[in-house]
Amino acid sequence: MRIDRPRDGADEPVTPSSQDQSPELWDGPRRITPEERRAEFDALQKLADEEEAKYAKQKAESERPLTRTEHRERLRDLNDRDQADPEPAIREGVAKTDEKPEGRQWQTIEEEIGELKSWSSYKSARNELGTVEGTEIHHIVEQSQGEPKRAQFDVARINTSDNMTRLPKDVHTNISALYSSRPPGFEVKVRDWLGGKDWDFQYDYGCRVIDNEMRRHDDVDND
Amino acid sequence: MTSTTIDEDRSEVRRLLLEGERQLRSGDPDATAANQLTAEVETIAERRDAQNQLLDLLSPLLTDDADSVRFGAASFLLSRGHAEVAVPVLEKVNDPRAMMVLDIWRSRQS
After folding, report:
1. What is the interface pTM, i.e. ipTM, of the complex?
2. Helical residues (DSSP H) of chain B, grouped into ranges
3. Residue A117 half-sphere exposure, CB side, CA atoms within 13 Å?
């Protein structure tokens, strides 16, 4: 095979054979030996294998349920990222533990299964938790708060057992409607107002809304 | 155009607020319909506000039996700066949106 690239300043093209014979006159590419080709291939293959292993590890890591310690650390990181709570007093009286607070008429999934657990999607959470007739799984901090235009919370954080509860269907839909409503004189919907708040604020607000709606629900049932 | 008395407007605002609450809490809640009713409340209230009659229109509703009526009246009054009458009602009324309205108002103050 003839290589057309000439030497600098030379009119005559140089063949590979002349390169082999006079390497000091050749400043262009040279023919790669089979050994070098194999070595290059092996290096690329090794790189690809490493990348694949790294990706598989990351994927497995993201799908693995967080341990309690990891969950707390992750929550702390997320909270640190947020701005300071504008109304710390709002959180008073709202316990966030794996024990159901006294007098509360509903329980979180964490309290139901006795475990703090995260899922990578709502679908996987629902598949594992199953359904209970007459109820729907409700997120205390809404799933919509993972959207870019809202709080951008981590999907796994939203789908964590302490953020989910089973509510009567009508209570669940009423809360969703309430979050889509806007008060007279104000242009912003509840859901969009919450989008500017940190996790703890939204969580506490969500608990209060559930408390309120469950009381109304029970009042209607008792009438 | 048929003109309405302020009592008739107040009665209509009350009806709209109750209907909005019903839309949110029916078996098949409809927030879009509820927000449309809110817009109708605002139209009436803005018309009376332009005539400097907003307090006359809404103040009597601040002591209504229905939480939704007290909340709706107080919310609109606060949005138009009548904090002295609206805030005490919003701090007591049983509506989760009262916290939101107060939060927005306080952030505007600071």
Report:
1. 0.95
2. 6-25, 31-50, 54-58, 67-79, 83-90, 97-109
3. 18
Asked if A173 and B28 come within 8 Å (Cβ–Cβ), the reply is yes
Q: Give phi and psi for A38, each to the nearest 5.
A: -65, -40
pTM of the predicted structure, to 2 decimals: 0.69
B79: nearest CB among A185, A193, A216: A185
Q: Which residues of A192-216 are buried (b: 16+ CB within 10 A; e: fewer)?
A: ebbbebbbbbbbbbbbebbbbbbeb
Q: Provide residues of B within 8 Å CB-CB of chain A.
A: 17, 20, 23-25, 27-32, 34-35, 38, 41-42, 45, 71-73, 75-80, 94, 96-97, 99-101, 103-104, 107
Structure tokens at B21: 């609450």
Nearest to A85 by CA among A206, A218, A208, A199: A199
> Which chain B residues are Cβ-neighbours of A182 within 8 angstroms?
35, 38
3-class secondary-structure state, position A66: coil
Q: Do B94 and A86 touch (CB under 8 A)?
A: no
DSSP letters, A68-123, are HHHHHHHHHHHHHHSPPPS-GGGGTT---SSSPPTT-S--BHHHHHTS--B-SSHH
* Side-chain half-sphere CA neighbours of A94 within 13 A: 18
**Alpha-carbon distance A112 to A98, whole Å?**
9
Task: Name the stretches of chain B with pLDDT < 50.
Answer: none
State pLDDT tens for residues A51-65.
788 777 776 666 555
